[in-house]
Structure formats: C-alpha cells, structure tokens
User: Which sequence fits this backbone?
C-alpha cells in the first residue's frame, strides 16, 4: 500500500451508489479527496467539493488537475442515444487530461462490452465483442483506454463490475424490481428466466476493490474483475434471499422477453432494457478469482450482504 496522505484522489461522478461508497473508503489511503459532480455533497469532513458539468472539456481538465488518481464513476442517463453522444467525447477528455497532468486513471466499468456467449463465465480474458448498442459504446470506451495505455503510456485500470446492489436503490435492478416490490407487498419481478445464475456485486465490496486497485502501483495497465461472491444464485434464489431477510412471502413474477419488448413501446426504461435481455436469459457468472487471490480478499457473502442492506434500509426509514 502506498499511503501518501498528500496525494489528491479524485472521484468523477461522486454522487452515485459506488461513488458514495468509494468516498467512505478512500480516507484509508489519503486525506486529500476531491468529489466532482453536478452537485457534490461531502462524505468526509475534509472532502474538497467541485461542482462541474463533466460534459465540458475544460471542466474535466480542471477536475483532473492536481490529482494523482482519478476514479471515473460517472453514470450517464440510461439511454442509448445519450450514451452514443456523451461517453466517447467524455472519456477522450479524461484520457487527455490524465496524460497532461500525469494522473492515473481508474475506470469503473460494467460487462456490456463483453461477448454475450461468454457471460456464463466472465473473467478478465473474456472477449470484447458487444451485441447491444450500449455495449458497443462501452467497447469503444474500453478500447480508447487500452490504446492510450499501449500508445501514450497512460497509467490506467479497467475495473469491471457485474450488476450490483446496496443501500442506494436507484440504478439497481435487484433493489427496484425485487426489494421495492416486496416492500410494497407486490410480487418481486425478474427478467426472462429466474432459474439461471446471475452474479450480483455488493456496492461496499466493489468500492473497496476499486480503492485497493487504485492504490496498488502494480495493478495498473490491466483489466480487473472487482470482488464478488462466487456463490451462484439464480433470480429465484435472490428473491427468496430478500423475502427471507424482509420476512415476507417470496412471491414473484417473471417478465418474458416478448413482454419486455412490448412494454418497451410504453415505458422508456424497459425499452432501454430490451436490448440487454441476453444478460438474463442465460447463466451470468462473474469470476473475480484474479482479484481475490492477488489481494487475499474475502467478498461479503450474498446472505450477509442482503441482510445488511435490508437491515440498514429498515433502520434508516
């Protein structure tokens, strides 16, 4: 661990589920943290807040300047057109700024860019071969980072995460379709097939993993799968786990692929999901052996994570 308390570490997109957790972890490594977002809020007393519109090139440069490590945790609106317009120019600006200010880049990525036929066992060697429009955008972003590492000596990490859950509800399918429905006395919902395996990351583990990678010099210029429990659960088993923790019956409804395509005509978020159904019609297993072995890290069990989330949300009500 290179603990250097003067080295500024910066989070771009600081308000989201992972950004918030990461800001809680970073004081283990530095007391000099900058949070950048449209409207950033302090997590630690000493955080430096920088409100910014990160679609603006100058704003990106200002955000990166003076940082030793930049974590990219920005989440653009879940919309194909928005992704096509915003992701690539944004990441180009981030790469340029990191090169200019000799700053390391940690990119928090998902698995959309990967080959649909390899998601039953996702490792760092899984091929970049997207079938969705959103996946094509992510592949372009990944390739820009990889090329900058190879051709411009950028110091960077691509840290991959599967779908995730935690105490922040929005942008988590598990929290919106399972937890919130059960909380309202409705049936939990799943997509396509509830009898296939679906790995889910737990936000505190993903954040700890991201911080650990960022602060490990020899982790750079590689792809890493962030730490996730290797216990395989199906959609049905996830629902049963939540229902048990919440002490409610595990009632469920599975939305078949045709229903998602039909509903997509009326509901924008479902329309955006319809090209991603391949992630739910087959096993989706996220393998973080490389991380777990390298750092001797033990991810939270699914049982403990679900109980922690349910109890924390109950206490915060």
Assistant:
């Amino acid at each position: 661990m290179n603990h250097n308390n003067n080295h500024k570490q910066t989070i771009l997109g600081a308000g989201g589920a992972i950004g918030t957790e990461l800001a809680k972890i970073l004081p283990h490594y530095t007391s000099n943290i900058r949070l950048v977002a449209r409207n950033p809020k302090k997590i630690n007393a000493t955080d430096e807040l920088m409100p910014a519109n990160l679609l603006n090139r100058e704003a990106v440069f200002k955000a990166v300047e003076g940082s030793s490590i930049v974590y990219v945790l920005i989440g653009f609106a879940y919309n194909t057109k928005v992704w096509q317009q915003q992701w690539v120019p944004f990441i180009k600006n981030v790469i340029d700024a990191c090169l200019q200010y000799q700053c390391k880049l940690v990119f928090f990525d998902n698995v959309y860019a990967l080959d649909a036929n390899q998601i039953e066992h996702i490792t760092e060697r899984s091929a970049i071969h997207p079938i969705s429009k959103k996946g094509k955008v992510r592949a372009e972003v990944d390739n820009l980072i990889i090329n900058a590492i190879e051709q411009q000596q950028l110091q960077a990490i691509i840290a991959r995460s599967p779908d995730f859950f935690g105490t922040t509800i929005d942008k988590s399918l598990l929290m919106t379709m399972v937890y919130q429905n059960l909380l309202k006395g409705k049936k939990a919902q799943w997509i396509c097939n509830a009898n296939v395996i679906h790995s889910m990351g737990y936000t505190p583990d993903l954040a700890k993993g991201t911080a650990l990678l960022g602060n490990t010099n020899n982790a750079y210029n590689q792809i890493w799968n962030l730490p996730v429990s290797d216990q395989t659960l199906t959609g049905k088993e996830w629902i049963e786990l939540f229902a048990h923790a919440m002490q409610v019956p595990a009632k469920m409804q599975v939305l078949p692929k045709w229903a998602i395509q039909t509903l997509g005509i009326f509901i924008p978020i479902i329309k955006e999901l319809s090209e991603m159904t391949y992630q739910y019609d087959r096993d989706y297993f996220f393998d973080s052996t490389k991380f777990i072995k390298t750092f001797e890290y033990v991810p939270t069990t699914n049982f403990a994570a679900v109980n922690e989330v349910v109890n924390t949300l109950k206490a915060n009500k």
Residues 121 and 285 are 5 Å apart (CA to CA). The radius of gyration is 19 Å. The chain has two domains: 9-164+200-228, 169-197+232-284+305-312.
